[in-house]
Amino acid sequence: MRIASARGLQSASMREVAAEAGVSLRLVQYYFHTKEELLLTALAYLGERLATRVERHIRALGPVTPATSSTARSPRSCPPTPRAST
């Protein structure tokens, strides 16, 4: 990911990715036939890690209690948001 983000996916070589990971080029090519496949797999992995962290933080907040009618307002009862003039 660092190589692709620094120079772009088209400029990154599988050899550089293997060197960054500390593995052989053949090993990278065995599991990932294209750079695009490698990138998509890496993004899916990062997405799963992010989802896990978000879920953990949500659980740490504790149970959500229903809002009472005096504190909760429907979006229709809120005053309109001022718009910037263009």
- Unreliable residue stretches: none
Q: Oligomerization state of this entry?
A: single chain
SSE topology string? HHHH
Number of helices: 4
Mean pLDDT: 82
Level of helix content? 40-55%
Let me know the number of strands: 0
Query: Under the CATH scheme, which class?
Result: Mainly Alpha
What does this structure look like?
By secondary structure, the protein is an all-alpha fold. It has a single domain, classed as Arc Repressor Mutant, subunit A. It is 55% helix and 0% strand. It has four helices and no strands.
Spell out the key features of this protein.
86 residues; mainly alpha; Arc Repressor Mutant, subunit A; elongated
List the helices and strands and how they pair.
Layout: H1 2-7, H2 14-21, H3 25-31, H4 35-60
Helix pairs in contact: 2-3
Question: How would you summarize this macromolecular structure in one to three sentences?
Answer:
This protein is mostly helical and 86 residues long. The chain has four helices and no strands.
